[in-house]
Input
Amino acid sequence: MTARTKARGDWLLHNTADYRQVGIVATYWALLFSMYFVEDCRNVVFFLAACYFAFLNAVVIHNHLHKGMFKSKRLNRLFRGVLSFGVLYPASANLASHNIVHHHFDDDGKPDWAAPDNVGFRWHLLNLLHFPNVVGPNTFNGVSRWAKTTRQRDFRRQYLLEQAFAFGLTGVLFVFDFWTTLFFILLPQLWGARGILRINLIQHDGCDITSEWNHSRNFVGKWFNWVMCNNGYHTIHHNRAGLHWSVLADKHDQECGPRTDPSLNEPSMVLYLLRTFVFGVHRPDDEDVASAERAADRIDLEPRAQRREQAEAEAIAS
Amino acid sequence: MLTQQIMGLLALGILWVNGLLVVAVALKQLAAVNRMRSRFARARGEGRLIEGVVEGDSPIAVRRVEQLGRARTDTRSEKTILFTDGAQSFEVLGGRIQTADGAVEIAPAPDESAEVWVATPRAEEAAACPSEDAFDEAWGDANKYKGHRRDVSVDVRGGDRVWVVGAREGDRVLAPDGGPLLLSMVEPFAWARSKAWLLGGFVLAASVGLAAVTALALWRPWFGTVSTIGGVLCVAYFLGIQPLGTAVRDAVRTPARQPVNGTWQRS
Output
């Protein structure tokens, strides 16, 4: 039996593991509106938790846009609106920016909009800070262009609705209480949106995007992946985008094991960030991380062009 | 408790860090443009930058761009194909140019040792739809997932005024060691000057804007009406400076890196 067929759903969800994601979003909304309405909640704990859950909200967008979690298509679309408010960008942008362009490191012959070489400071911490300032507009422009030619007929309407809901609700909150919204709604939203953009730098800088098994950096800590819905296993996610996040850990061990350079399996993201961006001043030199892949047995993997085509087809269907 | 003052300082800190990062990148770009202008000046002083008119009918250089065309699906009024650039290459094919001091031969240079700056109208001309039949042929593919692939060649040809930067051997200019032979339809000093002005203006405007919105946000009484207007402008600045920064980045790319793209339309 394959990992795909083990999925167990109920009347609402394709996979009951996704209740964790629903819980993440519900918790995030509770944190945001607690701070907005209750003055006593405007403290460090709530604020930091809201920023963290904003990032997790973006992780849920990522998972949900790969495979809608609800059995109802309408509910999937509605949930995209809810998720869009959490990070103040339309969730459906992920269809083009992530599922199609990023997964294949290619935009019709041009580089990924979120390629690490979009930033070039010698002090690497500045690259981490500045990355969203460049990649955000790249992504917005790219999605706008993609929207003009997509064959997903209802994309533009859905994209517009998500923007209307996200910006509309945030705007209403601003009108009623500008400063509280700025400090306790907008800052977490932007932290989440910019955090998920930064992940592109964290997960791909110094990797070999021309390889099949060493294009990504993985963060393999068990607790980290429980909280992050297995988004630390990035190599296997890129190569098998159709897999549900709940099975990525097993698949990572099975397929990436001998093919992925051990240096790309980081035990802890926090330690990696500290080592690379805080204690390490300069950007690390590129290494031949794909040597492990060349030495290992080959494994069946469809060509990238074919996988890209499948990604677009799945985007249209979901 | 996170007071408004604490959060205000945090928000201003975020605004300033990101505003200054965008300005720092523009300053780096300005330094790169100025270095390029200095290289041009040095080359002119050493007789390695020459200006002249291309002789003969054959192209002297070419910029080749692989493009993918996709049909627009957001409009039904007319059929439109949007082309976007993929990989590109340059080649100096070689030829002669007539300068004020006489004819100079330009040696051929292949892709890795050539860079060709074409003028925008010439690129537009090369990317334009040649005929209705060509449109109809492309339209079918442009509506499919894989799109319509084509190669665009933008020529520099006889009668064009060009500027060439390379190594000089008597009446011959060739690719220098360790760098490309540059053949440009764009006057390089004017190009560098206009980009330097753009970047300098952006740095100045971005810095003044950052200081101005901050001053308004800190207007006393804090969080009063004027201060709130300042807060709104701070948010607008934060959201606006990022696309402005990337727009300036795109605008100051050398002509060799400016996209050719193109749009074909038929009603």
Summary: Chain A is about 60% helix and 0% strand. Chain A touches chain B at residues 40, 42-44, 47, 107-110, 120-121, 126, 129-130, 132-134, 136-138, 140-141, 145, 147-151, 153, 156, 178-179, 182-184, 186-187, 309, 312 (CB under 8 Å). The two ends of chain A are 24 Å apart (CA to CA). Confidence is low (pLDDT under 50) at residues 1-5 of chain A.
